[in-house]
Amino acid sequence: MSEFQFKPDFYNSKADISMSVVSDASQVISPAQKINLALIGLGLLLLLIAWVGAGTLQPLVFFLSSIGLISIGGIRFALAQYKGRPEGIKNTGVMFGGMTHRGAAAWITAVVITGFYVALYWYPQYLEGLIRMMDPLSHLIRGQAANQWFLYGFLYTLAVLIMGVKFILKYRHNRYQVIRTFSVMFFQLGFAFLIPAFMMLMNQPEFYFTYFWPLDSYKLRPDWINNFISKGGLGLFLITISVIMTFIATPILTYFFGKRWYCSWVCGCGGLAETAGDPYRHLSDKSLKAWKIERWMIHSVLVFVTIMTLLLWANSAMQGGILGTASASFAKWYGFLIASMFSGVVGVGFYPIMGSRVWCRFGCPQAAILGIFQKFFSRFRITTNGGQCISCGNCSTYCEMGIDVRAYAQKGQNIVRSSCVGCGICAAVCPRGVLKLENGPTKDRTVIHVRRDEVGILDDSVF
Ligand code: SF4
Ligand code: SF4
C-alpha cells in the first residue's frame, strides 16, 4: 500500500474510533436514567415556578415537591449509574461530556450558579419566591422566617448530601474515600446546618463550629469578640473554642495528619468540592505557571487577612483615634473581594470551567496556613513506589489541586506539597498502587527512592 492510500484509510479509521468512544460515552445515559433526569428536570422546573412567585403562595407544596423530586431523581440516578457495576473507579466519557469538558452545558451552568451567587450577596430581593419557600423548614428548625442565607445553607447542604451519595457509590471500593465522604457529609449537615439553626431556635448566637480564623475572618475580630463577651458564659465558651481551634488544634492536628484533617474531612468548602465538584476535578490547571500564581495569591490573601485583623485590633485599642474608619473599610473590602466574590462567585460558580478547588487552591487563607504547617511541620506525605509507575498520568489528571503527581512518581519522590489536600484520589485512580497516603516520622519526608532502572538493574529477580 502506498503512502497516499494509507493516509486517508488511517485518518478515517482514527475518526471511526473517536466517534465510537464518543457514542460509548453518550450511551451511558440509559432509558432508566432518562426517567431519573426527567425527575430532576421536573424538580428544577418547580423550583423555577417557586422562584417567580409561587413559592410565596404555597411554600410547603413547592418545597416538598421540588426538593423531593430533585433528591429522589438525583439519588436514583447515582444508584443506576454505579450499582451493580464491576469494581473500579469509572470516569467514562468525562473528557467528552459537555458538562464535564467545558461544553455549552458547562458554561450555562457556570453562568446560572454565578448569577445565583450575585443575587444572593447583593440582590436577595430577586430570590424572594425561593426564600419564602424555605419558611416552613426555617420556622421548624430555627424558629424564625427564612432569609437568603438559610436558603443558601440548605441548597449547599443538599448538594453535599446528594452528590456525597453519588461519590460514595462511585468510590465504594475504596474505604478511605467512603469514610472521608461520610465525614464531610456529617460535618456539613450537623455542624454547618443543623447546629447553628438549633442555636438560633434556643435564642443563642448562630455559631459555626467548623469555621474559624482565618477562613472565618470575623472570628477574632474585636467587634465579634466584644459582641460574644456581652452574651455571657456561652459567648465566652464560643470565643474560647474559636481561639483553641485557630492556635492550638490547627497546628497539632496538621502536624499529625496534614491539612487533610480539615480540607478533605471537615470543611464545607472542601466538602462541596469533593462531592458536587468531583466530576470537574480533571479541569484544574496543572501548569507551572498556575502553581506560581497559586503560591502568590493564596499567601497574599493570608497576609491581607492578618494585616486586616491586626489593624482592627490596633484601631480598637486606640478607640479609632488614629486609623479612623480606615480599618473598617479595609475589612469591608476584604469581605466583598475575598469572602463574597472569590470564595462564592468565582470559587463555586466556576466549578464547571476551572475545576472544583479554585478557591481552596488560589484564595483560601485557611488552606494557606494549613499548607505552611503541612510543608514544614507535618508527618503527612504521599509515598511513591516509583519502580511500579507506568506513567499513565491518571494521578495528575484527577488531582483537583493541579499537582503533577506523575512527575513525583516517576522520580520515586515522596510528595510533600503545601497545596495537597490529601483527598487520596490520585492513589485511588492509580492502576499500579504506586501512591500511598501516610502519616509517619518527619525525618526523610521528602526522600527520593532510587528507581531500579536508573541504577542499571532491570532484572526484578534480584529483589
Ligand atoms: S496529590 Fe493526590 S491527595 Fe493530594 S490533592 Fe492531589 S489528588 Fe488529592
Ligand atoms: S496513576 Fe500511578 S501508574 Fe499512572 S502515572 Fe500516576 S503513579 Fe504512575
Q: Could you walk me through the main structural features you see in this protein, from its secondary elements to its overall organization?
A:
This protein has 20 helices and 2 strands. It is an all-alpha fold and 463 residues long. Among the domains are: 30-85 and 99-167, no CATH class; 288-367, no CATH class; 379-462, Alpha-Beta Plaits (2-Layer Sandwich). It has a two-stranded antiparallel ribbon with strand order 1-2. Helix 4 (104-122) runs antiparallel to helix 14 (326-349), helix 7 runs antiparallel to helix 8 (175-201) and helix 8 crosses helix 12 (268-275). The longest helix has 30 residues, at 288-317. The protein is globular, with a radius of gyration of 25 Å.
Instruction: Give average pLDDT, whole number.
Output: 88
Distance between the termini: 48 Å
Strand order of the largest sheet: 1-2
Residue share in helix: 55-70%
Structural Rg: 25 Å
